[in-house]
Amino acid sequence: MPGPLDGVVVTELAGLGPAPFAGMVLSDLGAKVIRIDRAVPGGLFDPSPNDLLARGRLSVAIDLKRPEGVEVALRCVTASDALIEGFRPGVTERMGLGPAVCLARNPRLVYGRMTGWGQEGPLATSAGHDIDYIALSGALHPIGTPEAPIPPLNLVGDFGGGGMLLVVGILAAIVHARATGTGQVVDAAMVDGSALLSTSHHGYIADGWWAPTRQSNLLDGAAPFYGVYETADGEHVAVGALEPQFFAALIEGLGLDPGDVGPQHERSGWERMRALFASRFAERTREEWAVHFEGTDACVAPVLSLTEAPGHPHNRARSTFVEVGGVVQPAPAPRFDVTPGAIGSAPASPGRDSDEVLAWLGFSSNEIGKLRESKAVA
Question: For the domain 9-197+322-373, what is the CATH code?
């Protein structure tokens, strides 16, 4: 059964991180995503067989330094609803594939641009990575220990504030284009997106109950009932008993006397409360605590590694992870009851589908042969 984006066509210029993530999400949801790879293999942007962000694509390998190659890319653009690129500002313009050229070919096109700093501003052309963008947006500062921030992998900038926001922007612009016939440029910047993710915390600051120092707030590790504890086997459990009824279930499950624990929100007693919790959690293994709290509302969960998570019964029951091409990986999300998403294929080697894509674009077998002979397509 086709996904909810069946009929949507996307051209993706091969890149790294958040742009391929956006292409993956769109493909998982049913879009036909044509990835333009480089004709000469072995470059930084070539996906490995285990580059899961490259799953579900058709790959055509084009030499964009040749005019014939650029023309092939523009044929893809003409047949597409959207384009994804993740280069610094001005790069695609120099390639002959900038927004003005592409929108002239396809006025309905949604031109999705994924960068760290955005298309304008003092830092627009500067180098950077996820950690730099979330540092400037304020999203990195609250995460970590009192001594220093800790990078939250590259989940907040690259994928949450970057690729996922690009997907939202592209889909919104496609809705507009289909209603009006007019395409547009989507400027998705990780500094903007990671700032957007922190919206609620700016409200907390305005309300006066979010302090600027790390591990001094309800959700940043200060509260003993919202944190992580080591278990007897050196593993960890996560505790998120914020509401009073969940806190009560936690105290009961730990076998503690509420009078000894003290009031939940009495900050002066948090240090002692944490010590009580830590001592009790250290008495059993992670698995023993997981079994003990299962079915309760204490909000206690085992902290699973990336390799352990696919085997958890809940994740297995929901098929949260699937195996494609011998590689275990997260399944498409979110879920649709009428048009479920699916992983179209394992990551394609560059140029695997060149002939198929060219034929779909209307090139004759003779024209495809000439493109290969000129090395414009590989």
Answer: 3.40.50.10540
Which residue in 129, 141, 236, 312 is the catalytic one? 129
Q: Where are the domains of the chain?
A: 9-197+322-373, 226-230+236-302
Residues with Cβ within 8 Å of residue 41, at least 6 apart in sequence: 61, 350, 351, 378
Distance (Å, whole) CA 90 – CA 126: 12
Q: Single out the catalytic residue among 46, 132, 158, 220.
A: 158
Q: Average pLDDT for residues 219-247, to the nearest whole number?
A: 97
Residue 48 has pLDDT above 90, yes or no: no
pLDDT of amino acid 131 = 97
What is the distance between the alpha carbons of residues 118 and 189, in angstroms, rounded to a whole number?
5
Q: Which tokens go with 138? A: 């304020």
pLDDT for position 1: 67
Catalytic residue at 141?
A: no
Question: How far is the C-alpha of 63 from the C-alpha of 43, rounded, in Å?
Answer: 13
**Interval 117-143: pLDDT, tens:** 999 999 999 999 999 999 999 999 999
At the topology level, CATH places domain 226-230+236-302 in formyl-coa transferase, domain 3 (3.30.1540)
- The whole-number pLDDT of residue 44 equals 66
Tokens of 87: 């280069």
Assess whether 312 carries a catalytic annotation.
no
